Amino acid sequence: MKHPVYALLGVLWMACLVARAQPSQAAPGTPAAPATLPGKGLAQHDFFYAGEQKQRDLYIVKEGRLVWSYLEPNGKGEISDAVLMSNGNILFAHQFGVTMINQAKQVVWNYDAPAGTETHTAQPIGKNRVLFVQNGNPAILRVVNIVTGATEKEFVLETGNPASVHGQFRRARLTDAGTLLVAHMDMKKISEYDSSGKEIWSVAIESPWSAVRLKNGNTLIATNKKVVREVDPKGQTVWELKPEDVPDYRLSGFQTASRLPNGNTLVNNWVNSWSTTIDKSNAEVQALEVTPDKRVVWALREWNNPDLGPATTIQLLDGSVPEDVHFGDIR
């Protein structure tokens, strides 16, 4: 039998190893970010913003100012996905339905999710069609013509736990090839489907929240395990961002990431407002723009005047047309 002193030393040594293995990040009680943040704050980019939180808020920022907002404090369900279309309409999925509003904040179209189901992602196809995923048993991908009300495409998506609908899916996004990338959160993989519902590609990854296909053919994935990973068509990692790469910033969770035309990567840092009391005097940043060598060139932190709330969607207003996509022959 080991002497108690030696046993204690062994425990302390293992604790030391575990501590050394943890990401080098700002601990609670210390500054959540540098005193002087890189970039130009709200003026860095024009952007559309929304996030999962207790209320349903949407924001548009242009030339460093908040120019439009939609505040729905009594709305039921969190906003997991939102898209500002080129005509000014906004499509958003809010857990218990999908809604499109115009700039006058009038409802253009609405879909209420049936009892026992949830909707966390939606994407416009042209001006008249909406693609969304309905978590449930079974989970369903659906394309609806919002003018006629007709369902023009529908097929069942595999799930890891059909009875636990909340954790099945978050974001799904169409590719330039007309296929669909789906983050199977409860199956620990990203899958690509053609318009018939056939899985044509997949890659395993822990707790994926979103994925987008890049111009170079690679796939950029964000996970709620605080990892952003770019993989090639063979599934090999070619670039990755982890908390230890930005040790001066306290991070809670990644949900979405995008590759900018300048080669930088924009990633949100989502704070869970249900389980965390947000200290606005020392709050985490809501977004980071990092260079390929992982240097932070912009950090967004706006919790007061305006209070943008937690970050899920950060869509840069760069003149692109987000509804200019297709799913097979549906345009």
Descriptive report:
This protein has 331 residues and is mainly beta. It has one domain: TolB, C-terminal domain (Neuraminidase). The protein is built from 1 helix and 24 strands. The strands form 6 sheets. It has a 4-stranded antiparallel beta sheet, with no helix packed on it. A hairpin with a 5-residue loop joins strand 16 and strand 17 (219-223). The longest helix has 18 residues, at 4-21. The relative contact order is 0.16. Mean pLDDT is 92; it is low at 1-24.
Order of helices and strands: HEEEEEEEEEEEEEEEEEEEEEEEE
Task: Using the 3D structure, state the CATH architecture.
Answer: 6 Propeller
What count of helical segments does DSSP give? 1
The CATH superfamily bears the name: TolB, C-terminal domain
CA-based gyration radius: 21 Å
Main sheet attributes: strand count, strand direction, barrel closure = 4 strands, antiparallel
| Unreliable residue stretches | 1-24
Class derived from helix and strand content: mainly beta
Give the termini distance in whole angstroms: 73 Å
- Please count the beta strands (DSSP E, at least 2 residues each): 24
CATH class category label: Mainly Beta
Helix content: under 10%
Mean pLDDT: 92
- The CATH topology assignment is Neuraminidase
* Major sheet: arrangement of strands: 3-2-1-24
Strand content: 35-45%
Shape: globular
The structural domain count equals 1
